[in-house]
Request: fold
Amino acid sequence: MFRGMYISTTGMINNQHRMDTISNNLANTNTNGYKKDGVLSESFPEQLLRRINDNSISTIKPFQGVELTQNGEEYLLETKGAYFAIDTPAGTGYDDKFKFRVTEDGYLKTYYQDNDRNIKSDGENYLLGKNGRIRITGNNIEIDGQGNVFSGGNLIDTIVTKPHMNVIGTLGNGIRTDRVFINFTQGDIRQTSNPLDMALNGDGFFKVQTENGTRYTRDGSFKIDREGFLTTSEGHRVLGNNGAINIGNGEVNTDQFGNISLNGAFVSRLDIVNIDNKEFLRKEGDNLYRIEENQEAQESAFTGEVLSGYLEGSNVETVKEMVEMISTMRGYESNQKVVKSYDEILQKAVNDIARI
Amino acid sequence: MIRSLWTAATGMKTQQFNIDTISNNLSNVNTVGYKSQRAEFKDLMYTALKRANPNDDNNTPVNIQVGHGVKVSATNRNMAQGSPQPTENPLDVAIVGDGFFEVQLPNGETRYTRDGSFKLSINGQTSDLVTSDGYYILDNNNNRITLNSGISDLEIDNIGNITAENANGETVDIGTLKLVNFINSKGLLNDGSNLYEETVASGNPRVLNNFNMDSTILQKYLESSNVAVIDEMVKMISAQRAYEVSSKSIQTSDEMMQQANNLKR
Reply:
């Protein structure tokens, strides 16, 4: 009876996180090079629900084997009459379906697609066997109808959990905020006619030198400091292929590859890179991104074009955010109604039933 | 909830500032030598709601980051050339290209301007070249530019040399307008009255002479304001809508807080 009250509360908290993110997106509708945030929610792991003090016949269907279907890199496990145990950051859960891929280090994990449609598994859930997480040693994987996992001809583990006879099924435990992802789609390009304004058309980042190390940015509204270096508004120097770029004074021109020339003479080439593991980029304010600690940025060549005299606007779509805001608001309200209903039931239980 | 309320408030405040800047540009649409300004924004700090756990073999990245809104990062001055407009007045000059005239205030400090609508200030038998506010224009030797009486046919050539005819019909040299530029002219401070002040960010003034000058001085022209009205109008519309949308965030946060409050009857 109380369980539902807490489940609704998780929904309210999740909607609060969503609202925080939407507000931040809407506040940045006019921020150059801003990339909008999205919230991904995930349900808490499902728990097996069991009857107590009940000796009647089990309602669980008899175990009907395990089916494995493969589609390229992606696998789908299904079973009837039994469950797979899944290790999630929030605890162990049970389900009769499990979609997974095999990671580089041999684990069977759920996956997601990043902005470039690459399949990634960081921070995702593991399939559990009897002896912990399943880890494959060979280069192939076979799972038989009884849930035994083989790799390279060796039996690794078994993955089927046959429920106790009093188990009647699984129950969800509500929702949690799983991750905030940055949506790196292109913002609109606006003309400013200022030669020091640069927009990137296509994936990539300018590199900026700060006192805390290299940072990345999409905001190309550059300035020149008193020593003639190209900087951001905060005075961080923009990096070229040979370090900071000294422009000095004169007519600055930048071509589509990021080659900067002064009065027609080549000065330096902007160090623009594409980052392949964007899921590890973190925002740190001032339109700067840094790579997550303990991670290396996988830089690759920039294939887009540099537009000098233009700036990239924010990629926040106001209409979408407004719709998102309305649905968040109403979701919050529905959950609040559920909590209130519980409150009314409790009131009856506490005040009315025991009245003599 | 409280967080989104304040986040949305930063959105409204910065858009208010944006409108302030746009209004100032539009007010100066006919100001001689005015350079339009643009407000630039950056996102504020982010809070990580989920901390990285070094003992976590999940390799779980910290990936619940919530931002706190937006701030004004700079007002960027657009130094693009305003178009020279003919005036037929020999005391009007326009600079085509980089550069500023040097102006001396009554307290001896120097300021810089692109407004070349000069006047003559009578001083006994002579008169001095001044701005509309009566501040002296300086020549290459940092002196005032003084004309004796009986002078006619004042001519200023394209590098700023001033000549005139005296009462005997001879051509006399009066001086050369001092023209300076800065390594970072966007770092100059606006002082009002079309004057700019040197700052740490702008660097020191460098005198332009006929060896290093690629600008031209046009007599009988004035440089008009470089404000593009259409652009400003479009910016105004988008600023107003951005303001509105953040106000909707505040309303929604408020309604959600109301819902939370209504949990307890």
In short: Chain A touches chain B through 67 residues (CB under 8 Å).
